[in-house]
Amino acid sequence: MATGGLGLVVERASGSLVLVDRLAHSAVGRIEGLGDLSHASLTYSPDERFAYVFGRDGGLTKVDMVNRSIAGRVVQAGNSIGGAISDDGKLVAVSNYEPGGVRVFDADTLEMVQDIPAGSKTIGLADMPGRRFIWSLWDTGETWIADLSGSEMKLRKLADVGKNPFDGVMTDDGSTYLVGLFGEKGVTAIDLWSKDPKPVRFLKNYGKKEDDLPVYKMPHLQGWAFTDGQFVLPAVGAHELLWVDRITLEETGRTAVHGQPVFIISQPASPYVWTNFAMPLNDTVQVVDSRSHAVVRTLQPGPAVLHMEFAPRGAEVWISVRDANVVQIYDTLTFAKIGEIPAQSPSGIFFTARAHRNGL
Amino acid sequence: MATGGLGLVVERASGSLVLVDRLAHSAVGRIEGLGDLSHASLTYSPDERFAYVFGRDGGLTKVDMVNRSIAGRVVQAGNSIGGAISDDGKLVAVSNYEPGGVRVFDADTLEMVQDIPAGSKTIGLADMPGRRFIWSLWDTGETWIADLSGSEMKLRKLADVGKNPFDGVMTDDGSTYLVGLFGEKGVTAIDLWSKDPKPVRFLKNYGKKEDDLPVYKMPHLQGWAFTDGQFVLPAVGAHELLWVDRITLEETGRTAVHGQPVFIISQPASPYVWTNFAMPLNDTVQVVDSRSHAVVRTLQPGPAVLHMEFAPRGAEVWISVRDANVVQIYDTLTFAKIGEIPAQSPSGIFFTARAHRNGL
């Protein structure tokens, strides 16, 4: 069967995944036994055959998309927040809080091939070309780059990235690694195409205003969108999007929105970004034009909109509505709801086209 | 089986395709009976199940990637130069010289659903979001946009695009349609995200210098690359790449290269573009850095390098070497040749990941 139209929806309360057929607008199976998926993400092998699911409890599960079953599973740490797959599909890395560090596994056998303790919680793990991984360290304010392309791993450590990095993300072109800071204002950019990458601070007023704002209320950098020569990111503790010029790294505008933005995602081949919001205003989604910076549409899918995923070429958007136990499908041109798939407490939605993208 | 790692190589002299497995670095089948593929391209269905092959003789062939066979075929015109599939995968459009115009087919049955005569050769066909297609007319200097999302087709005609458009291409973000002109100097840009798209001329010195330069010696716009805030395109009748700022549309630099560039292709997640050359200097490929505009590597794969295709995340490049009857595979980090697949007079190489990209 062809795998290009498949996807997985995380059922966060039951340790299960719904396998979906994007073209048929239907569920085609359920895979169970993935442990604690209350915070989970996944990545695909380059041929779309396997999904690697990273669960909060440190579980790493290899899911076979063709046989619709678990092909391998290891509980590799006590508490884990995400992972990535190398560009050649051979290695899977996982970012752990407990014990703090990154572990690297053979994508075929799930055997551990490298253990990279950090003495710190690790965050912001992403793949880089050439069988490399990058991540940051909460406690020490460093960013590490591991090169696993040779027989021996080469580890490069960049210091002075900032106080308490809480998240990191790669730009869509793979040129820059962005690091969000919890312990000071500002965002750090590291130019990965430079021979000597150095941390550079920008948006120097961006960050929490009160000392007691907990880290889980800081916006995810995974929520940034890259569109039309700009970054767009959530304001901290304010109901706004911030627009930043990619070349100058200067703020160029703000958009007042419905609530505290969580995920801002670019609609492919369009000037639009779609945003969802944090509790309690999380029944709403807004569409914003990257050129005018204006809200062009407001939708109300239902209680607890957790995630949005576009068809790779942009014709549809799939929206998980956790407390309605449903994934809704919208036509991005007309905003009509064109389908619905039942799912128990759905959170993340991941189409197989992600197999072909960097930095996820 | 998973389809995400598959690809097709055109065997231009025998009307056949080689089915390849990108991860295994091997051929896994051959499909024959596709007529005249001396000039051919193809596009994929959104689930990667089918390839639609557009042949010079007006043949439109639907190829089943799972069953490795021809699922449908129609000879729909006398002379045809390319095609596209709508973003929702429902319609396939073909661009014809004879009779001049565009024909649209049901992607499932290959039944013709719309005949759009132009009284002119049509060129530069691409898909646009919302089940639309765009193309240009050689004889009249117009660009047409067909909207097939409703029960009746809506056709929009833009005049004064330029004298004798010979090719057109969509930028990678889908924002702009670029039209190359044969009858006058300059390139036309049309902003597709505008409510009222208008042709705008730029690079006003770009174009043929001698009146008798035949159209087939003009560089393909399909050879343009979009990288790092720039366009990079082949100079006309000179051994140079031109670099253009995407925002200002002003030329920002030139790179002296080995021959007349044909295809310039961006290496994913990198600052590099790779270029091949026209006869007689077509045994060579060069790699150029988009930041320094300098050549960083020169390779000599062999006689008649016709096409290059990257692994979607950039770790490898596949290069067709027509007169050595082989497709070579290179590691983009080390430039080492890491594989080779026999193919008869290979030309275009197309991986299934293209199913998830716009404007192809």
Automatic annotation (TrEMBL), chains A, B:
InterPro entries: Cyt_cd1_C_sf, Haem_d1_sf, Host-pathogen_enzymatic-act. It comes from the Bacteria. PANTHER family: DIHYDRO-HEME D1 DEHYDROGENASE, PROTEIN NIRF. This is Protein nirF. It comes from Aestuariivirga litoralis.
